[in-house]
Amino acid sequence: MLYYSTNKQVSPVSLREAVLKGLASDKGLFMPEVVKSLSQDSYDQIENLSFQEIACQVAEAFFGEDISEDTLRQIVFDTLSFEVPLVKVKENHIK
């Protein structure tokens, strides 16, 4: 998969090049040309998944064509190896 700059002033690049550069030369962020949708089953099961398992599914949608599932899983679990407290949002909490 190729990754384009959000400023669209440079040619799309590989994941490797996007990661190594960090920012495109036009100062845009790199984004994948296509992001796979999560399955309905993913949404149905989300409350039963850990933060890391959810992150694996999202990472797969962004990087799955370039990085194997096992490698993505290892990256996610190594980098997100902390607890994330869940806080219930109260009704009408958004102003």
UniProtKB/TrEMBL annotation:
Residues 3-77 form the Threonine synthase N-terminal domain. SUPFAM superfamilies: Tryptophan synthase beta subunit-like PLP-dependent enzymes. Pfam families: Thr_synth_N. PANTHER family: THREONINE SYNTHASE FAMILY MEMBER, THREONINE SYNTHASE-LIKE 2. This is Threonine synthase N-terminal domain-containing protein. The lineage of its organism: unclassified sequences, metagenomes, organismal metagenomes.
